[in-house]
Amino acid sequence: MSSSRLGGFALTIPIISVAVGSMGYAAWRIDWPALVQSFLTGPGRTSRILLLFFIIFNWKTLPLAWTYRIFYAMLYHMVFRNAPRLGPRALFKPMITETKAPLLEIDYNLHKSNSTYFADLDISRTHLCAYLLRPAIRNMSNNQKTRLVRDPRTREPVKGNFAIALGSVMCSFKREISAYQSYELWSRIAAWDRKWVYIVTYFMPKGAARPTEWLDPRFGRVRTRDHKDATGGWEKKIHATAMSKYVFKVGRFTVHPAIVLADAGLLPPRPGGWQSGENYLGDESVDLSDVDLAAADGEWDWRRVEAQRREGMKLAAKFHALDELHDTFDGGNHGALARFGPG
């Protein structure tokens, strides 16, 4: 999600339902055989057919296509599909989304324009959050009844719509993506602190990497690769890597990420809780050096989850430090070059 208000989104569901129903009724009333015959014959048919093919192969970049992709991801996971509760083992696992680079995303170097990567990131993050955090999103969208998020001063439920806001995003480009090349985005939660959830995304050629297993039982029949083939050469094929940070809000109140993750069933019980300690991140003085994060098996207890969170924070801390760039702007006190348009 780029910056989404789920409370407002919930209110639009009836409107969307009416619109879809109306379009369905209109489509049912259309004389399709006559329409198709008229489209494929008569004056201007070549132009119409070429235009249709152009739209089909470039729909991703058409007006409102980004909005459709966002709402599709939200509706699919929040309304139409019941994502299973997978527990703490799923917390750091990636969500894979597939797409292509249409012609209108190609720049003068004949590969995918760098600016278009960020639209793909919006879609990938939306799939990840709507899938993993669905129970918590629903509860916080109805916070007055669920009382999940409470004001620490009054202990009353916080009022307002639930929102997920994008704080910042960074993308590092490695290898170009050619026109109409298929590729995948692997997005996963890397870490969280008292305010932000950090998400890492990898742009990969389609099929270059395959998971050794699927946690969602509905993917049980999808072929996975042999555990002995642990690399497959994908390390040299990564197109780009990105890191984003999200903040959860109910009204103007910032929700601790641990509340969201715990309500989604992704955090195991922890002595003292996940919001204790000086930094509201639990007891950070606990020695976790004996935890083997590379182990394929094993229980995802609080020690392993916390060890993985600390590992992710090593990257997140460097990413978070980029916020200091705001302080380097001088407001024009040392002059400028010129001003031109259009931009």
From TrEMBL:
Pfam families cross-referenced by the UniProt entry: 4HBT_2
Species per Swiss-Prot/TrEMBL record: Trichoderma parareesei
PANTHER family, A to Z: PROTEIN THEM6, PTHR12475
Family: Belongs to the lcsJ thioesterase family.
Annotated protein name in UniProt: Capsule polysaccharide biosynthesis protein, putative
Record keywords: Membrane, Transmembrane, Transmembrane helix
Residue ranges of the TM segments: 6-28, 49-68
